[in-house]
Structures are given as structure tokens and as C-alpha cells.
């Protein structure tokens, strides 16, 4: 894959990148580290992980996964799509307080980031573990999980501790192949304008050389300027 496509995708915060597979897998097979989170990734300032990594030429580049409204259930299925690339690797998870609510993830937000490609990938590789059964149960509580009757039937069997039927798996495999082909064809063309210019501007505000004390002072100054409670 063209490295420019991956570079653009890394900080694009694009829902299409989050829901796809090809670009994420390609990035994580190289020098990118997945950063799972939500709306905080859109707040670009000098201390954003993408800015710091670019400024100080770190040995990795953050691959931002998540945006406003993406929570733990969304990220569970995102992770399933890159399981081979995550094995024995490092990842960063930025946990937001709003993830911990009695009713769990908002169904509308989940639907926005829902990916049938990721669901079919997961169904193919799940093994009926307690985690898999609970994931199927939670997905069935979302409108997205019931949007395809055959997939919903497979999820119901997984939630009950049963394997999907042969006909269900034939359908899941077919849908997965079709969606993978679509991802390979269209994913590189769906990336919006990236945030490289914003990253470059914020780099200019940082000290030329990494210095913890100077960075701490700068963070305090920026924080004081943005303090809305003054």
C-alpha cells in the first residue's frame, strides 16, 4: 500500500478508517502504534501524541483509532479486525469517564461506527469463550447487531454458547469476502483531508529539543491560558 495513504490515515480520525481493515493492518505491521480513544484525539495541541511523536522523531507513529462517541464496545470489534497485528505488540488505550455508564455505549454512536466487516471477521475467529458470548449478547442489544437477520441469528447462537450453523457460516464467509474486496478497492479513496498541517503548526510551539522541564512549563502556560474558570 502507498505509504502516503497510511500516513494520511494515521491522524485522519476517519470513521471509514476505523471501520475498515486493510489500512489499519498495513499500518500496524510497520512502525505505527494503535492509540484507542474517543473525542480527545480531535483536540490537537502541542501535547497531542501525534505532535510529540512527529516533533521528536520517535521510533513510532501513533495511529489514532476512535473519535467522538466511540467507546469500549466499538473498540472491542476494532481490535478483532487487527488481532494478528496486535499480538505481542504495544497499544495505548485512552479511557474516558463517560465510558462507564449503567446503560453502556449509546446505540446511535455505536451504529455510526459499526462495521459489518469487523463483525464477520470476529464471527469467523471467535471460539465461544465467555468474552465472545458476552460480546455477541451486547451486539444483539444494538440495532446494528440486528440489521442483518442471518448475522443476528449467528450472534444469538454464539451468545447462547453454540456454534453458528453451517449455512450461517457460509453466509458470514461470503459477506466477509465481499466486504474485504470493497475495503481493498475503496478504503484508500475515502480518507478525508488529514491533520498534518495542524500537527505541523503545533510542532512549532514545542522546544527544539526534548526537555521535560520546558515541556512542563509550556503545558502549565497553555493550561492557564485555556482555563475557562478564571
Descriptive notes:
With 230 residues, the protein is mainly alpha-helical. The protein has one domain. It has helices at 3-10, 15-19, 22-28, 49-55, 72-80, 83-86, 107-113, 116-125, 130-140, 149-159, 166-186, 196-203, 212-225; strands spanning 32-36, 61-65, 92-93. A 3-stranded parallel sheet has the order 2-1-3, with helices on both faces. Strand 1 (32-36), helix 4 and strand 2 (61-65) form a beta-alpha-beta unit. Helix 4 (49-55) crosses helix 12 (196-203). Pfam families: DltD.
Poorly predicted tracts of residues: none
Q: Would you list the SSEs in sequence order as H and E?
A: HHHEHEHHEHHHHHHH
The number of distinct β-strands equals 3
- DSSP strand content: 5-15%
Order of strands across the main sheet: 2-1-3
- Biggest sheet layout: 3 strands, parallel
Q: Residue share in helices?
A: 40-55%
Computed structural class: mainly alpha
Organism: Lentilactobacillus buchneri subsp. silagei CD034
Protein name: D-alanyl transfer protein
Pfam family, one: DltD
Amino acid at each position: 500500500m502507498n505509504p502516503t495513504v497510511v500516513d494520511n490515515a494515521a491522524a485522519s480520525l476517519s470513521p471509514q478508517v476505523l471501520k475498515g481493515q486493510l489500512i489499519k493492518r498495513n499500518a500496524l505491521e510497520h512502525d505505527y502504534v494503535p492509540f484507542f480513544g474517543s473525542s480527545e484525539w480531535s483536540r490537537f495541541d502541542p501535547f497531542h501524541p501525534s505532535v510529540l511523536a512527529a516533533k521528536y522523531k520517535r521510533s513510532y507513529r501513533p495511529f489514532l483509532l476512535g473519535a467522538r462517541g466511540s467507546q469500549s464496545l466499538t473498540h472491542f470489534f476494532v481490535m478483532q479486525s487487527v488481532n494478528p497485528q496486535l499480538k505481542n505488540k504495544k497499544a495505548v488505550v485512552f479511557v474516558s469517564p463517560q465510558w462507564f455508564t449503567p446503560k453502556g455505549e449509546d446505540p446511535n454512536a455505536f451504529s455510526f461506527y459499526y462495521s459489518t466487516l469487523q463483525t464477520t471477521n470476529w464471527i469467523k475467529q471467535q471460539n465461544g469463550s465467555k468474552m465472545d458470548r458476552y460480546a455477541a449478547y451486547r451486539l444483539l442489544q444494538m440495532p446494528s447487531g440486528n440489521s442483518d437477520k442471518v448475522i443476528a441469528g449467528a450472534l444469538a447462537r454464539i451468545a447462547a454458547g453454540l456454534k453458528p450453523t453451517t449455512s450461517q457460516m457460509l453466509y458470514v464467509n461470503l459477506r466477509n469476502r465481499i466486504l474485504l474486496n470493497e475495503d481493498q478497492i475503496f478504503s484508500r479513496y475515502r480518507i478525508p483531508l488529514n491533520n498534518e498541517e495542524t500537527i505541523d503548526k503545533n510542532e512549532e510551539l514545542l522546544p527544539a529539543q526534548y526537555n521535560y522541564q520546558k515541556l512542563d512549563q509550556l503545558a502549565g502556560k497553555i493550561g492557564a491560558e485555556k482555563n475557562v474558570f478564571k
